[in-house]
């Protein structure tokens, strides 16, 4: 029987239900010290004095690490624009001035003490003097004439430091020929990852003398590189291990504790102290201290014929990158590719900018720019349908990308474009052709009786495409190692195997997917495979748990490694070893002039969603009755885990769209707690979420597999906005759709009691 | 600072530990008793990850001072299984993929146990009410609801 298509239980499930699973925050090795990370608490200021003497003398304190202890005081996933520690003196080299705090959560020092309480108390004794620098609060401030530069050292010499262009066809003529023009400006909100486990880790020198960091991340080998870079060490001198990880969603793609914990161990080592160091952030520190889904603004115009066929798209997009790039340049790329929608667009002028401010950095979050682009494109498409009195599904049929379509970058999409089928399946499952549903009795509050009086009902539809894997020429690869064991007999078959892979299981079930694919590739049972996962000392680089890429990339690496191992087995090797480094077809950077055809991605995933909701036009409360998410997953590895990804992504999208309202003012996160930042609870979610999984194989995916974990998040918010229009006749161009906002917009449009 | 001596029945065993007055029960259970299955998700009583059963009632252990546990009977996730034999709730969470990252799981399990101890045959609405104090960021909750229903059904048959 095939190992694929079965809902096998996760290998870590037993430990997780018994409480035995040891997450990074659960590790208390003997003699462990606590490292407290001191934030600067300065959104924009230059440090002129730092005195740690009193802190170092405090009870229980073993050492204090400052900028002067950092050999190479710079880091960043795609560019080195962030100091590891801010300080007036820094012995190390750095591409970015080390004496300026550009973010309230920049790191000032690491206080290492016997206990957490002692470390926190001592941190309060650190003295520092600051010279205020002009604050760049948001996109408007950053783009204003004469705005101060957040990064004066950046060659762009502008806060809008990264600009992407697509110029396709003749957009001016397209608008002259248009029967209808749809214009909109959309304000896109932040989203906080809110993984339930705040940042934590433990570091020590291992038995081979390597500085070892056990932490929750998304890419062991990138963490290893960043640590080695900042500490000026060879890669071999650094080891990164991922214990069970308490969620990630993109929020652990960049460094949090990795480098500072390694620095702490190095400092102790220099003093001849061989003790492990642990650290853990509070929820508040986590929300203040790591990046967010970008807030942004998009102004766009769409030109179409009276039949609803797109003639051209203009869009100018700005993302608030915050104080450091993180992955903003890449996130911007995804917004850029999705803002004109998954449609055939013959003429386009797209300009997208990442903008430095002194706000919290924007970065990776499930969808990676796609949800922002999708909100704009799908709301535009729904508005186009409404303007022409066309059905939202029908207008998509007339424009959607299909096999052989030329994409927005003027090259054909990779083979296997299945969005037309996905849209049809979604419409069928949602019974889209059915007549409008009668108003439902809803109650804004449990204490009030449900009523239909102010209830209005509507349905909405949206679809999306998103890349799988690293884009724009970023080096993409995945390494797998398989060792086959069994009898020495020449015609014997292997009876067991070892599988080595670095890919991170951040909770999504990646390790189970690896095991099921390895079982399929080797013909062994899952139980016969012994895994070695997520340790740089035993595995090659699998790349990150991001971009819906892990199953796709590691599956191809597993297939290669299994084939190599099988060859060795046939040659009589016992054990038989297979090592394979898979690289997908190359991708390209966009051309700076925006006109040259380029292939930015090697694979895409496709999704469509239909929602049915009621809104109370007096209170602004929304109840979602039904969500249908149709997605082409290519080949189902594990049905239970795939529906888990769909349901989880839809509920994250529900929060993004309806309740999650991160307030950032003058460079400060104002509501860094779950009491003020509301992620959906079990009582807040849609009445039902239905998953429709298509299995149209990706011709290059392993076993036909497509990436799928991000896509269901993308169409939800625009589908909700489409349904709100269906219910009330009012469009929403910003969210989250909290009751006060919904009520205010409806009132302004004359809906509800005056 | 003076320490308080606390004696409690934890997961069926008489347990003694020394704690400072300002220490939360959460930190005492994790740091002093070694029960790291009890998770800190927020430290402010908003997420339910640190839930324990104290004298039969569900409590956010981050909001309880450790000395308040003196004389109490406490059950944590570590106390649900009978040796190697998982509690039906644990078994159904495992089989039903009602967990992903698993940080919220201990809190959901003890909250669901309190519910089923009082109401062996809850409706879906009653399950949602009983678990309203627990946040999960991964699963979208549906598989959790199904797992609790399945466990209730198995416990009724048993």
Q: Can you characterise this structure?
A:
The complex is a heterodimer of chains A (754) and B (158). Chain A has 754 residues and is an alpha+beta fold. Chain A has a seven-stranded mixed β-sheet, with helices on both faces. Chain A has a five-stranded mixed β-sheet with strand order 7-15-14-13-8, sandwiched between helices. Chain A has a four-stranded mixed β-sheet with strand order 16-21-22-25. In chain A, strand 23 and strand 24 (668-669) form a beta hairpin. In chain A, helix 6 packs across helix 7 (258-270), helix 9 (328-338) packs parallel to helix 10 (370-387) and helix 10 (370-387) runs parallel beside helix 16 (716-728). The longest helix of chain A has 21 residues, at 550-570. In chain B, helix 2 (88-95) packs across helix 5. By secondary structure, chain B is an alpha+beta fold. In chain B, strands 2-1-5-3-4 form a five-stranded mixed β-sheet, sandwiched between helices. Chain B has two domains: 3-78, Roll (Ubiquitin-like (UB roll)); 88-157, [2Fe-2S]-binding domain (DNA polymerase, domain 1, Orthogonal Bundle). Classes of the chains: A alpha+beta (754), B alpha+beta (158). Chains A and B meet through helix 1 and helix 15 of A and helix 2, helix 3 and helix 5 of B.
Q: What is the level-2 CATH architecture name of the largest domain in chain B?
A: Roll
CATH topology (level 3) name of the largest domain in chain B: Ubiquitin-like (UB roll)
For the sheet with most strands of chain B, the description reads:
5 strands, mixed
The number of helical runs of chain B is: 5
């Amino acid at each position: 029987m095939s190992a694929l298509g079965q809902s096998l239980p996760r290998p870590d499930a037993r430990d997780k239900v018994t409480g035995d699973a040891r997450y990074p925050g659960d590790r208390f090795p003997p003699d462990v010290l606590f490292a407290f990370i001191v934030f600067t608490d300065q959104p924009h200021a230059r440090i002129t004095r730092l005195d740690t003497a009193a802190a170092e003398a405090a009870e229980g304190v073993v050492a204090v690490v400052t900028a002067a202890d950092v050999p190479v005081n710079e880091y960043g996933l795609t560019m080195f624009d962030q100091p590891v520690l801010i300080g007036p003196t820094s012995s190390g080299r750095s591409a970015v001035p080390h004496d300026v705090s550009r973010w309230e959560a920049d790191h000032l020092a690491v206080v290492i003490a016997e206990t957490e309480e002692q470390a926190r108390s001592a941190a309060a004794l650190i003295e520092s003097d600051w010279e205020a620098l002009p604050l760049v609060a948001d996109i408007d401030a950053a783009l204003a004439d004469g705005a101060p530069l957040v990064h004066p050292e950046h060659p762009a010499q502008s806060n809008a430091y990264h600009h992407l262009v697509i110029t396709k066809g003749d957009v001016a003529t397209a608008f002259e020929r248009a029967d209808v023009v749809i214009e909109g400006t959309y304000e896109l909100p932040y989203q906080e990852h809110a993984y339930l486990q705040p940042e934590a880790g433990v570091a020590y020198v291992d038995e081979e003398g390597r500085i070892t960091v056990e932490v929750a991340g998304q890419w062991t080998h990138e963490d290893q590189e960043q640590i080695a870079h900042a500490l000026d060490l060879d890669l071999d001198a650094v080891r990164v291990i991922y214990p069970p990880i308490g969620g990630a969603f993109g929020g652990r793609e960049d460094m949090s504790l990795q480098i500072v914990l390694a620095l702490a161990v190095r400092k102790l080592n220099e003093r001849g102290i061989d003790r492990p160091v642990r650290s853990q952030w509070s929820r508040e520190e986590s929300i203040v201290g790591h990046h967010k889904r970008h807030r942004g603004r998009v102004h766009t115009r769409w030109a179409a014929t009276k039949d609803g066929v797109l003639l051209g798209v203009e869009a100018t997009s700005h993302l608030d990158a915050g104080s450091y790039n993180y992955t903003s340049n890449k996130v911007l790329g995804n917004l850029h590719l999705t803002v004109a929608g998954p449609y055939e667009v013959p003429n386009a002028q797209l300009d997208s900018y990442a903008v430095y401010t002194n706000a919290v950095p924007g970065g990776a979050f499930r969808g990676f720019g796609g949800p922002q682009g999708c909100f704009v494109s799908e709301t535009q498409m729904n508005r186009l349908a409404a303007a022409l009195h066309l059905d939202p599904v029908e207008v998509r049929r007339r424009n959607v990308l299909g096999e052989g379509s030329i994409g927005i970058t003027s090259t054909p999409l990779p083979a296997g474009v299945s969005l037309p089928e996905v849209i049809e399946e979604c419409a069928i499952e949602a019974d889209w052709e059915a007549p409008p549903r009668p108003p439902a009795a809803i109650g804004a509050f449990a204490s009030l009786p449900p009523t239909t009086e102010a209830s209005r009902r509507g349905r909405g539809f949206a679809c999306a495409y998103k890349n799988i894997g690293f884009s724009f020429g970023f080096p993409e690869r995945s390494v797998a190692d398989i060792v086959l064991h069994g009898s020495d007999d020449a015609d014997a078959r292997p009876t067991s195997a070892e599988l080595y892979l670095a890919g991170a299981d951040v909770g999504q079930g990646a390790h189970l997917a690896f095991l099921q694919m390895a079982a399929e590739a080797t013909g062994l049972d899952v139980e016969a495979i012994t895994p070695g996962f997520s340790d740089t000392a035993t595995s090659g680089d699998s790349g990150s748990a991001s971009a819906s890429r892990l199953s796709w990339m590691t599956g191809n690496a597993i297939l290669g490694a299994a084939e190599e191992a099988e060859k060795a087995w046939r040659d009589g090797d016992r054990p038989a070893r297979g090592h394979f480094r898979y690289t997908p077809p190359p991708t390209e950077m966009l051309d700076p002039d925006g006109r040259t055809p380029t292939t930015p991605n090697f694979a895409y995933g496709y999704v469509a969603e239909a929602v049915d909701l009621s809104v109370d036009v007096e209170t602004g409360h929304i109840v979602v009755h039904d969500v249908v998410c149709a997605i082409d997953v290519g080949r189902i590895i594990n049905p239970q885990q795939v529906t888990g990804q769909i349901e989880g992504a839809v509920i994250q999208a529900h929060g993004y769209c309806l309740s999650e309202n991160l307030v950032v003012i003058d460079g400060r996160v104002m509501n860094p707690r779950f009491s003020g930042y509301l992620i959906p609870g079990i009582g807040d979610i849609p009445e039902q979420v239905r998953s429709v999984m298509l299995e149209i194989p990706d011709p290059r995916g392993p076993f036909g597999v497509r990436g799928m974990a991000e896509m269901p998040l993308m169409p939800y918010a625009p589908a909700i906005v489409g349904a709100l229009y269906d219910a009330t006749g009012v469009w929403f161009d910003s969210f989250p759709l909290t009751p006060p906002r919904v009520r205010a917009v409806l009132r302004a449009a004359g809906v509800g009691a005056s | 600072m003076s320490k308080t001596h606390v004696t409690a029945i934890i997961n069926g065993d008489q347990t003694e530990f020394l704690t400072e007055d300002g220490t939360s029960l959460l930190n005492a259970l994790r740091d002093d008793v070694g029960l790291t299955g009890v998770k800190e998700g927020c430290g402010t009583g908003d997420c339910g990850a640190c839930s324990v059963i104290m004298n039969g009632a569900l409590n956010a252990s981050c909001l309880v001072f450790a000395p308040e546990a003196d004389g109490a009977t406490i059950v944590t996730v570590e106390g649900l299984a009978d040796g190697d034999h998982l509690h039906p709730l644990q078994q159904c969470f495992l089989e039903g993929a009602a967990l992903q990252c698993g940080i919220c799981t201990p809190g959901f399990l003890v909250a669901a146990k309190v519910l089923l101890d009082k109401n062996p045959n809850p409706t879906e609405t009653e399950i949602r009410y009983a678990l309203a104090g627990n946040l999960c960021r991964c699963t979208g909750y549906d598989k959790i609801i199904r797992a609790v229903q399945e466990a209730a059904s198995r416990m009724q048959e048993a």
